[in-house]
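Fig. S4 source data, part A: sequence.
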Amino acid sequence: MKHSFIDEYSRLDSVIHRLDPRTKLISTLAFVLAVVLTAAGSWPFFTFYFVLIALLLVLSRLPLLYVLKRALVILPFVLLIAVFIPFFREGEVAWSCNIWTWQISVTFAGLLVLANVLVKSWLSILALILLSSTTSMDDLLKGLKQLGMPQVMILILSFMYRYLFVLEDEVMRIKQARDSRNFGGGWLHHMKTIGNILGTLFIRSYERSERIYAAMLSRGFSGQVQTVHTMKYRRYDILFGAVFGVMLAIPYIYLAVVLY
């Protein structure tokens, strides 16, 4: 079956792809922190960060439609969490209405917080898309390991990414078998069948994990993933990190100059 891998464009050749994974990891973390720590309502600074990440996306040669599709996926989840903020934030009322005995009000301060959350989330997602789409999963995990992430977390992420698509195939086969025996009815009519599918999937996943673990032990697995490829920083990585760090600091330097 055709799967949408998060690193399907990691084999392209661009100035961003050629960076060391650790450089990209540290730069992405610095970008997200800079965006998150920016004060609410600082729209010129958010515009600056957008231009910066957009420039990097252009340099990476990633398809525009691919980036936009992935960036829009996160917005419904953010809205689901933050959509109620304007109703509970105190401040000047922007809109209100009465529903029976309740008065519902939306404040300008709440709308500002909602817009701030949406903008910060979207900019952070763009940075994560750039990271995951220009770095293969193996290199990304190896970079995380060399930056100090615990080995058990590396193994969990590695196995999750490797076998998530296997489980997806398993679900599609079970669903196809169910549909071929479907004689109609609503979702309530099929609740028992759905429960059986979930139970079957759990049992098959557990049995598969036991077989995989036994196969790994028989091949001498000791908890460490050995790779031939080694990573090392180059002048190009140091130069990129320095320039990118200075660019991220420009809004804070500007604030320091204006305030003091």
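Fig. S4 source data, part B ends here. The mean pLDDT is 82.
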